[in-house]
Write a structure and sequence with these properties.
Blueprint lengths: L4 E11 L3 H4 L4 E12 L2 E7 H4 L9 E11 L1 E7 L13 H13 L7 H15 L2 E7 L4 H14 L4 E3 L1 E2 L12 H15 L6 E6 L7 H13 L4 E6 L3 H10 L6 H7 L7 E5 L5 H10 L2 E4 L1 H6 L7 H6 L3 E4 L11 H13 L7 H15 L17 E4 L5 H7 L5 H11 L5 E6 L2 E2 L7
Parallel strand pairs: 1-4, 5-6, 6-7, 7-9, 8-9, 9-10, 10-11, 11-12, 12-13
Antiparallel strand pairs: 1-2, 2-3, 4-14, 14-15, 15-16
The structure holds guanine (GUN) and zinc ion.
Length: 436
């Protein structure tokens, strides 16, 4: 079965480069296309007329015409323990953390709860067409074990880590510099590189980590340079003031992470809204990734991410839902909100920019573009099949579109999980339950 060849037929769309940099030449679109899969990897992508004769006799072909076939979406920042925090009323970051988030996260100490939330999150992501995500678990070591076990069972390529926090959180939610280090180390040994699982060293943010824990994180990074680092920065004014108060000797917020060796090529820093010129430069020099979380930044009233500035400063950008500060699991909905955030700043985002961002763009920002994010031969066959006319309003609107760019812009602006017909993980089709 492993070496068996199969194929998907439909309208293929994928990226080979950044459309913002090189325009139309960045995408590949094949109206009657065939995606050939062998052993869970892409074997070929191109014209059905050319590839059909190359298939061995009896190779199964799934006909998805007239639907779009794209690489699975990638979400660069999401919190597994917050699926029951989404849509909590009336607070900005620090109050929202204390009043809602830290309350729910304590429940992950209960037997079976992390398993339940992990299964729910993976179901919901896959139903939304997302096949890879960078995931924060809770402070409990078993929350990361539960998430990785569930992801490994499904063979999804996931990045995750146990949150480390040793202050400014309820006692039930804190570890210590030593236990956070030891637990992370154990999880890395158990999960990093096991099947498709990857580990992210996860000090939550400087507000909840003592200098001792930051130093312990630095040791983890030095000992495991192939692991990711994920954390938060410059999201909210009160948060920034608190961070500066706790680390008065640092140049600025980014300087705190720099001082502990946590700003590097594999570092994913959520939000990056209120950045100084020096901080942008520090990111560029370190090759660190700014993670833009549109629905969260709007919902928590945090501010407007300046993507143009990031480009200007040559800082890598990834995009993400940030559930449960964010309000949608859908990367399509996320990009519709990104468009509006850029509109408020006189910037723009074409449908090609948006669809690149959630596939090859995020893969490249994560340094995983040799594995996922496109239909180049040899990439893992994580695939989403989309019906742009899935809703009455969308079918109606599509009556008047004149070209692919317009059709895709309707898909990005009005689309969500209702447009997802099928999701494939390493070539295997899922019979996911629809969420609508
Ligand atoms: N900063 C520290 N923790 C969090 C979190 O859980 N969500 C968001 N949006 N920001 C944070
Ligand atoms: Zn977050």
């Amino acid at each position: 079965k492993d070496g068996a060849i199969s194929a998907l037929r439909g309208r293929l769309l994928w990226f080979v480069d950044d459309p913002h940099a090189i325009g139309e030449a960045a995408h590949r679109y094949v109206e009657d296309g065939l995606l050939v899969i062998e052993g869970g990897l892409i074997k070929a992508a191109g014209e059905a007329s050319e590839l059909l004769p190359t298939l061995p006799a009896g190779a199964p072909i799934t006909d998805h015409r007239p639907h779009l076939i794209m690489p699975g979406f990638i979400d660069a920042h999401i919190h597994m323990p917050q699926t029951q925090v989404v849509a909590s009323y009336g607070a900005q970051l620090m109050e929202w953390l204390n009043k809602y988030t830290f309350v729910e996260e304590q429940k992950l100490a209960q037997q079976g709860h992390a398993e339940k939330l992990s299964a729910f999150l993976l179901d919901e992501l896959l139903a939304s067409g997302t096949t890879t995500a960078a995931v924060y678990c809770s402070v409990h070591k078993q929350s990361a074990d539960a998430f990785f076990a569930e992801s490994h069972r499904r063979n999804t390529r996931m990045i995750a880590g146990k949150v480390m926090m040793d202050r400014n959180a309820p006692p039930a939610l804190t570890d210590t510099a030593e236990s956070g280090y030891a637990d992370s180390k154990e999880l890395i040994a158990r999960w990093h590189g096991k099947g498709r699982q990857l580990y992210a060293i996860t000090p939550r943010f400087v507000v909840t980590s003592t200098p001792e824990q930051m130093a312990a994180s630095q040791r983890l990074v030095a000992e495991h340079p192939d692991c990711f680092v994920q954390t938060h920065i410059n999201e909210n004014r009160a948060e920034i003031a608190f961070a500066r108060e706790l680390y008065p000797d640092a140049a600025d917020y980014a300087g705190i992470y720099e001082d502990y060796g946590l700003l590097g090529k594999k570092s994913l820093l959520g939000h990056c809204i209120h950045m100084t010129k020096r901080e942008w430069r520090a990111f560029a020099e370190a090759g660190a990734v700014a993670v833009f979380c549109p629905t969260s930044n709007l919902f928590l009233g945090s501010g407007l991410f300046d993507w143009q500035r990031a480009r200007h400063e040559s800082v890598k950008v990834a995009v993400a839902t940030d559930i449960g500060g964010g309000t949608s699991y859908s990367m399509l909905r996320t990009m519709a909100e990104a468009y509006k955030i850029l509109q408020l700043q006189g910037q723009s985002l074409s449908a090609f920019d948006a669809l690149h961002a959630i596939t090859l763009g995020n893969a490249a920002a994560l340094g995983l573009d040799h594995l996922i994010g496109s239909f180049e031969p040899g990439r893992e066959a994580d695939v989403v099949v989309l019906d742009p006319a899935a809703t009455r309003a969308m079918a109606h609107r599509l009556e008047t579109v004149r070209d692919l760019a317009e059709e895709l812009f309707v898909l990005v602006t009005l689309g969500d999980e209702r447009n997802v017909v099928s999701t494939y993980v390493a070539g295997e089709r899922l019979s996911h339950c629809s969420t609508n």
